[in-house]
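[Automated response] Your request has been received and processed.

Submitted sequence:
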Amino acid sequence: MLPDTWARLPEPEAIRELESAARYAYSAAEATNIVAVAGSDVAISHLPRLINGCRRVVILGPTYASHAEAWTAAGHDVHTTQDIADLATADIALVVNPNNPDGRVLSVDNCCAIADAVAERGGLMIVDEAFCDVMLDASVVSELARCPALVVLRSFGKFYGLAGLRLGFVLSQNPVADLLRKSIGDWPVSGPAVWIGRQALVDGHWMIETRKTLADAAADLDHRLRCAGCDIIGGTSLFRLAKHEQAADIFDRLAQAGILVRPFDYAPNWLRVGLPPSKDAAERLSSALRGFEV
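Generated structure:
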């Protein structure tokens, strides 16, 4: 990386090259509008403010709270549902695919059918694919030309392990993509994010090998959690969702060991567990779980 990468604002051509690299990585058609953003959170917070009026927003849940918070803050009428059929009644339908925390996947056909329904009302179908790099068959990117109401959010940091870089993308053939580009301005991401993203997104061999590595690590994590009496009820190869009647006690034990997992108020026997970053960390997790074995 050249020193100028840190000292100068990124040139427009460099940002275009970054977006072209994303086009390659996500197998997007040439006509797809790809907008680089400083993490998908930027898109989550900006998109609701680009939609005029109070629209009926239906989110397939349970999922993480950022989407509902952003649409509510922008003055929209927000509803969360567990019934897929409700999404077709929305002005703005929103799914996280695969979902956080349970890994639920709404099929491509279902997403497109919902997109067609909301399009009749001039609406949008937003599909947050932050975790889709490890579940390629779930992606609706290939359908963007057929379904102009679709808007896809992609996150760079989760799959590449570089959350602090703050990089993501919005893909769509809907005019809202151009509105977003204008809204976030001429320098949507940093020079280092442009440079690193361009190198990483075209490294197809690394992607293939990393998917295998993550799958193996997820299988190992499942084994360690099952040994502690957990049932694995969902997740992706980036995180696992475990169920245990003593989930609160496990959370406390792991916290005391310096291991943070995610509990859920609406499901007190659930814990979302990220992949340990190393073999030593995995062994530390198993050690902390001793006493819960079955």
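Summary generated for your ticket: The first helix runs from residue 4 to 7. The chain has two domains: 4-202, 205-288.
If you did not submit this request, please reply to this message.
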